[in-house]
Write a structure and sequence with these properties.
Blueprint: H1 2-8, E1 13-17, E2 27-31, H2 42-54, E3 58-65, H3 73-92, E4 96-102, H4 108-118, E5 120-126, H5 133-142, E6 148-151, H6 169-183, H7 211-214, H8 231-244, H9 249-252, H10 265-269, H11 275-283, H12 289-312, H13 324-332, H14 344-348, H15 355-367, H16 372-384, H17 389-403, H18 410-421, H19 443-449, H20 452-458
Parallel strand pairs: 2-3, 2-5, 3-4, 5-6
Antiparallel strand pairs: 1-6
Helix pairs in contact: 1-2, 6-12, 11-12, 12-18, 15-20, 16-17, 16-18, 17-18
Bound molecules: flavin-adenine dinucleotide (FAD).
Flavin-adenine dinucleotide is lined by residues 253, 261-265, 268-269, 298-299, 302-303, 306, 372, 375-376, 379, 400, 404, 406-407, 409, 411-412, 414-416, 418-419.
Length: 461
């Protein structure tokens, strides 16, 4: 069908299985994973465009994994709040929503079973830059009689257009800016022409934040009470940021004591709000141009550099992903004496000699979010206080992913790679103990930049 070829020719689409449309298929199936929203979601809109052409309804499948490494009550509560709202919004748009709890290592078995039940003509997924080619092949085999497309819903400029790992912000920036006019446009929320009708024999899914109680989750990390999940909460946070803090963002963002940033990262991580929604609202706001540009640099250039990093560097979770110069210098300093050494448990409990670091760790452990300036300091000190750089790297990944509501995100892996492995950075002099030529940060220099006393007081034990 030629018009369907036009839908798949969108640069955001990757055809993972080029099977012909199944003529006996009954619906277009969207397997939602990262883009957990019904608003401004390019993957959902692609599914709707195809379903309108095929004169079939759309149904969304979400397989909730009962266990995920490092995920705990904090993450599940926030995610379920968002999914309950997304389910409601999808039904309002006459789209089906099927939610299943999966007990295995992934949701493929449930998904394959669901495909057999509903017989899709086409399967659409949202893109995940952390997935490798082999995983897509396995996914395509789950239902080989229908085409499988993945759609980049999490970035503005499709990540496949950047082709290879980018060296730094300065190399990706011009490439992104060249394509922004083409891709920074409203996603558009199409009308659904063919409504999904639930099978009367099948109970509709009930998604509720209360489900978290039934999942036997790791409850040692409590829900983040300052953050409520969902697209409504994300849009409200965006409006508040534009009204109260966008003017002054360029200078205020490096002041952890005043919370001048957007705190949108948890919503972006769970795909409860999309980058198009945020970027267009900021672009059109009345704040000074310098503040809007500073924010878009973080939200588009830095964020999409992180996506590019995990997409093209498969070793993104370990020190092995580092820049060669950084590996060399860290190796040369591997035997340097550490003035302080802490175990992972001491770090997790904020039991170091450094009040600023302890305050940052406490902010993350109790609230589920740490200020961006301090995330850099936090990771660098773990390098300084661990017996080996690779151990420091692993500890950073584990603590970040466990406590940050926005953890397990490309931004987190890129941030740790930057702090320890020199990723997207350059060698710095003078050479220092333990760090070698990797950029150093001290509590004295941080305290000169912002009122660290006020921050420490706020997050004292
Ligand atoms: C060691 C370390 C660990 C980090 N861990 C995470 C993490 O787990 N999850 C996460 O989302 N971010 C992480 N970051 C990146 C960044 O610190 C956070 O995205 C940011 O602080 C979130 O706060 P905000 O939403 O108020 O940011 P704002 O300043 O309001 O920026 C808006 C958005 O831009 C993006 N952004 C901002 N700074 C960066 C950056 N340096 N790199 C990439 N994107 C950026 C984020 O999506 C953010 O929500 C980490 C950085 C470092 C150095």
């Amino acid at each position: 069908m030629r018009s369907l070829d036009l839908v798949s020719a969108d640069p955001r689409v990757v055809v993972r299985n080029g099977a012909a449309i199944d003529p006996s298929g009954r619906c277009v199936l969207y397997r939602m994973r990262r883009a957990q929203r019904a608003l401004d979601n390019p993957a959902l809109e692609t599914a709707i465009a195809a379903s309108n052409l095929l004169a079939q309804p759309v149904v969304v499948f979400f397989g909730l994994l009962a266990h995920r490494p490092m995920a705990n009550l904090r993450h599940y509560s926030f995610m379920l709040e968002g999914l309950a709202e997304t389910a409601r919004r999808l039904v309002e748009r006459r789209i089906g929503f099927v939610f299943r709890i999966c007990t295995g290592a992934n949701s493929n078995r449930e998904f394959g079973r669901f495909c057999t039940e509903v017989r899709p003509s086409l399967v659409v997924c949202d893109e995940d830059p952390t997935r490798r080619y082999a995983e897509w092949i396995r996914e395509a085999l789950l239902y080989p009689s229908a085409p499988l497309w993945s759609v980049d819903a999490d970035v503005i400029v499709p990540s496949k257009l950047l082709e290879r790992e980018q060296f730094a912000a300065r190399t990706i920036r011009p490439r992104i800016q060249k394509r922004l006019k083409e891709f920074l446009k409203p996603v558009g929320n199409r009308s659904v022409r063919f409504a999904w009708k639930d099978d009367p024999g099948v109970k509709p899914p009930v998604v509720s934040p209360k489900l978290a109680d039934r999942l036997h989750l790791d409850g040692s990390v409590s829900a983040a009470s300052e953050f409520r999940g969902g697209t409504d909460a994300a849009l409200a946070a965006l409006r508040r940021f534009i009204r109260d803090r966008l003017s002054g963002y360029a200078s205020g963002r490096s002041h952890p004591e005043i919370d001048a940033t957007s705190q949108l990262s948890p919503y972006l991580h769970f795909g409860q709000i999309g980058p198009h929604t945020v970027a267009l609202a900021i672009r059109d706001a009345s704040a000074p141009a310098g503040d809007r540009e500073a924010f878009l640099e973080e939200m588009i250039v830095r964020r999409e550099l992180a996506v590019n990093f995990v997409r093209y560097n498969p070793r993104f979770k370990t020190l092995a992903c580092s820049e060669p110069w950084a590996r060399r210098t860290l190796d040369e300093h591997a035997r340097d004496k550490r003035t302080h050494l802490y175990t992972e448990r001491q770090l997790a409990n904020a039991e170091t000699h450094d009040p600023l670091w302890n305050a940052a760790q406490r902010q993350m452990a109790t609230s589920g979010w740490m200020h961006g300036y301090l995330r850099m300091y936090w990771a660098k000190k773990i390098l300084e206080w661990s017996p080996a750089a690779d151990e420091a790297y692993d500890i950073c990944v584990r603590l970040n992913d466990r406590y940050e509501l926005d953890g397990r995100d490309p931004n987190g892996y890129a941030g740790i790679a930057w702090a320890i492995g020199g990723k997207h950075d350059r060698a710095w002099g003078p050479e220092r103990s333990v760090y070698g030529k990797v950029r150093y940060m001290s509590s004295a220099s941080s305290s000169r930049k912002f009122d660290s006393r006020a921050y420490i007081e706020k997050w004292s034990a």
